[in-house]
Predict the structure.
Amino acid sequence: MSDRIALRVSDLDVYYRDFQALRNINLEIKEGEIISVIGANGAGKSTLLNTIAGLMVPARGSINFFEKDMTKNPAHRTVADGIALVPEGRRVFSRLTVYENLVMGSYTPRSRPAKDKELEKIYELFPVLKERHDQMANSLSGGEQQMLAIGRALMSQPRLILCDEISLGLAPVIIKNIYKQLKKINEKGLSIVLVEQDITRSLKASSHAYVMLSGKIVLEGDPASLTEDQVKKAYFGV
Ligand code: ATP
């Protein structure tokens, strides 16, 4: 991990019509760092990732990525600038093959020329995707679909990936494997934001954690220094 700040989110407010889903969010991630954002259902975690990814426009505040202002970037520009989202629920294209799904991830001018090289790297990371490259995505298991969703994000050659609930509904052995592979790509310099329900695993993988409650960050710090009591209190607001 370097000391260089990759992403800085400052004073972010986000609304769904009249409902304020994010309140004054401040967060940063260094180049090559893994951070966790945890919190109960409805705390605003997905809204935060979707806003960073350019799927929602904040009412106030700013998003900077390697000092570039991305606050009003639409999603396709955000991907081109190096941020890729692994969305909640995987959202693979079910009627396309594994190969076609992966190629869909390399549509930006920067990543298109490197398509074959990236594909090989992803097949090395998740060999099962290579074995199933001409199978329809809807014939894959949940774990394989999650690997595909991560692979598709990596095809854009991001410098930061935003992972929304990648463990949800998967067997522990699959989750362990996915985390192991994420760690490998992180060691090559990729920054990662983890939003998880499986907080034990995500906190263990992270060097910094943010706990959200009702749209606000109510606790943050090095996961090793946060007590279980503090996290529980912040998580449930009791
Ligand atoms: P979960 O773990 O359940 O996905 P979360 O922490 O990711 O929860 P968000 O999905 O970001 O939370 O939701 C934050 C708040 O915004 C919730 O109160 C939710 O009901 C509300 N919300 C989310 N999407 C919309 C929408 N499209 N329109 C209106 N309100 C929404």
